[in-house]
Every structure is written in C-alpha cells, then in structure tokens.
Amino acid sequence: MSKEKEQNQETAISRRSFLKGVGTGAVAASVAPTVFIDAETAAAAQTGEEINRAKIKLNINAQTYEVEVEPRMTLLSVLRDGFDTSGNRLDLTGAKPICERGECGGCTVQVDGKAVYACMMLALDAQGKQITTVEGLANGDNLHPVQEAFIQHDALMCGFCTPGFVVAAKSFLDQNPSPSHEEIKEGLAGNICRCGTYPFIFEAVKTASRKLL
Ligand code: FES
Ligand code: FES
Description:
Layout: H1 3-22, H2 24-29, H3 31-47, E1 54-60, E2 63-69, H4 75-81, E3 108-111, E4 114-117, E5 130-132, H5 145-152, H6 162-175, H7 181-187, H8 198-212
Parallel strand pairs: 1-5
Antiparallel strand pairs: 1-2, 3-4, 3-5
Helix pairs in contact: 1-3, 5-8, 6-8
One FE2/S2 (inorganic) cluster binds near residues 158, 162, 193 and 197.
C-alpha cells in the first residue's frame, strides 16, 4: 500500500472513531464545526501528536464534577459530551450547539451570574466559576418563573433556541428586574430565534419580571 493511501486510511479511521465519540446528535446539529474539530483530531493522529488531557473540577448547578478534558474542549462540549472521572456522562444537553461560533445564543449558560456562550469558553477557563445551565434553573418540580412564563406565552415553536433564551432572560432579569420592552429586546439581542417567536418571548420576559418582583 502506498504511503499516501496508508495516511488516507489512518485519517478515515480517526474520523470514524471521532464521529463515534461525539455522538450522532452533535453531528446532526452542527456539521461545520464538527468537521473542523474532526480535521484537527485527524491531523493530530497523522502527525502522531499526543493530545494532552487534564483533570479539572467544574461547579455546575451547585454540584462539583471532576472531568478530564483536552485543552481545546469548550465548556459546551464538556457539558453535553464530557464524562466525569467515574465514566458517567454529564449529559447536560440543554445548551444547544447551533452555530458554535458565538452568533446564535443557543448555548447560553450562566457563569458567575453572567450570560455566556458556552461554545466560546474553554472548559479550562470555567474552573473555579459557578456555572448554571438551563437544567439548574428549576427547583425540583417547580419551574423557574422564566420557564413558567415561556410556557404561559407559548414562546416557542421548534424549541431549539428556547434553553438559550431562558438562561439569557433569567440572567438579564437578574441585572434588570423591571425592564422596558426596548430594554428586553436589547438585552436578548445576543439570541436568535429562527422560528421568529420574538413577540411571545418578549411578553414572556415581561411576565417573568412581574413574577420575580
Ligand atoms: S452555539 Fe454558541 S452562540 Fe451559537
Ligand atoms: S423556537 Fe425555533 S428557533 Fe426559536
């Protein structure tokens, strides 16, 4: 077998293992970034470069997780596809990988009280911070007032943007508990809803603000 053919085969194998590793859900949700990371992994495999991993602790929804991460892994990828050191998947899939380049807000989580795009933060940089995902907003069976208001106003269609909007809205109301309509629009400008449910979302945020006062 020629060297070039051997290399192509190695790349294909590493590509297959990588796709298997991240799971088909992530692949279906966002093709471009997956291909980008895959190329990186394949390149590392071709050059024989070792990918360093580090054990870190992340505080997520008031629980401490010890996870093993590669330096290039984003907080979003660890929340969704990371494993703790006992081999349990974190499986916090509320934050969505939509654009994975800081443009849509689908992956919004709170970090130390501020809304952050989890796709734009390295997991390593989240150490020592309080991370809250949409899974951490409800109190047992009691939904957070923002979640209740989204249901009350039917503020979703496909629902893919909803977890990001809910966390962004909660974070926004933490800073501005009694906003005007214009302030809500501005405050949530970092989140995109492709189904166009904005009027319902803005009404939901107004209702939530009244409930929270
Ligand atoms: S997925 Fe993070 S901003 Fe779009
Ligand atoms: S409800 Fe479909 S993208 Fe917002």
